[in-house]
Amino acid sequence: GKPADFRRGLEASGDEVDIRVSWPGLDRPIELQSMILDLHTDKAMTDAAWVFSASSFDVSFATGEEIYVPDESRVVIALTHNFGHLAVVSCRHPDAGNEMNWQVKLDRLPERPDESITIHMSRKKGD
């Protein structure tokens, strides 16, 4: 795939993936989008398409050497276009260009803030 380029208005491209998260004590993994509040609707995010965009290689800010961008940015999943070039997975959503539209759904987080969270990612069926 290819990462989004918000300056040129290009969405991320690549295979769609299903993303779920889990932590100890949770009955089963939950969809990532259920943990994100859409401030326009005041409900959980819907209609997200998570895309394996693979990111890119660039010159490191720290060393000047060529690096895989997510190794330095530490961004695995980008919710908005302006972080898509830093991530391995990008979000395709009508409001992915609006970083002010999203908030974490606090009622969907683990009880303990130091709890280890596992990200489960798989290719979407049909792709």
How do the strands and helices of this protein lay out in sequence?
Elements: E1 16-22, E2 30-31, E3 36-38, E4 43-44, E5 49-52, E6 57-59, E7 66-68, H1 69-73, E8 77-78, E9 89-92, E10 102-104, E11 118-123
Parallel strand pairs: 8-9
Antiparallel strand pairs: 1-2, 1-5, 1-11, 3-4, 3-10, 5-9, 6-7
Notable features of this structure?
single chain; 127 residues; mainly beta; three-stranded antiparallel β-sheet; 1 helix; 11 strands; 31% strand
In a few lines, what is going on in this structure?
With 127 residues, the chain is mostly beta strands.
Shape: globular
Largest sheet: 6 strands, mixed
Low-confidence stretches: none
Total of DSSP H or I helical runs spanning 4+ residues? 1
How much strand? 25-35%
Helix content: under 10%
